[in-house]
Amino acid sequence: MAFCFVLNTRYLVPQLKLIMLKKIFLSLLITSSVYVASAQASVDFSSIKLEQKSDYAPAEATVLKVADYILSTPADKNSLDRIKSMQFLMKWMEGTPDYQFPIGHQIVKASNNNPDLLGVYLAAITKFSLENKDQSKDHKVVMLNGFKQFLTYCFNRSNNVKTNATIKKYKAAEEKGELEKVLEL
């Protein structure tokens, strides 16, 4: 049985949500303060307000663009664009009233506390949810498809990802058609 918690739901234990989000944001903030880049952001995030529930649906096209950007660019801790994109994506995920995003122990283990890899997974589940709205409420389907995109990203050599034993295990399971079983979904 897979452990799964969902962002932005009243059933989530508030302390777990707060702790996980603080760790993710802290990791990204540390990364962004340590690595300064001169790249120009591809999206002006300051012009996108995410303050009220009604602000989130109009931002979906931008969120999809941001998820595509994260999934199509190599892992690079020096990329300010990438860091800002992940921060915006996570802010949207946390506040949107229309979607819930499953983050299970499987991705925590696979990402090995690497905020960039966790960001890739978050981009993958967001992209899947936005492109498949009719399936976005099925957490197993979202997680499975998010993991497939995550693995594709990790095994694309141009993305500069050092795969660990867990990621390799999940990839082997995917190739055998057993990813859902190994993920315990």
Short description:
The chain is mainly alpha-helical. It has one domain. It contains eight helices and two strands, in the order E-H-H-H-E-H-H-H-H-H.
SSE map:
Blueprint: E1 4-6, H1 14-34, H2 60-72, H3 80-95, E2 102-104, H4 105-111, H5 115-131, H6 139-154, H7 165-175, H8 179-182
Helix pairs in contact: 1-3, 2-3, 2-5, 3-5, 4-5, 5-6
Rg, please? 16 Å
The SSE string, one letter per element, is: EHHHEHHHHH
Reported for the largest beta sheet, the result is: 2 strands, antiparallel
Structural class: mainly alpha
Round the mean pLDDT to the nearest integer and report it.
82
- Strand residues, percent: under 5%
| Strand arrangement across the biggest beta sheet | 1-2
Low-pLDDT segments, ≥5 res = 1-19, 28-41
Kindly report the oligomeric state of this protein. single chain
Structural write-up:
The chain is mainly α and 185 residues long. The protein has one domain (14-35, 49-182). It has eight helices and two strands; from the N terminus they run βαααβααααα. A two-stranded antiparallel ribbon has the order 1-2. Helix 1 (14-34) runs antiparallel to helix 3, helix 3 (80-95) packs across helix 5 (115-131) and helix 5 (115-131) crosses helix 6 (139-154). It starts with a strand and ends with a helix. The model is unreliable at 1-19 and 28-41 (pLDDT under 50).
Key terms for this structure?
185 residues; mainly alpha; two-stranded antiparallel sheet; 2 strands; globular; disordered N terminus
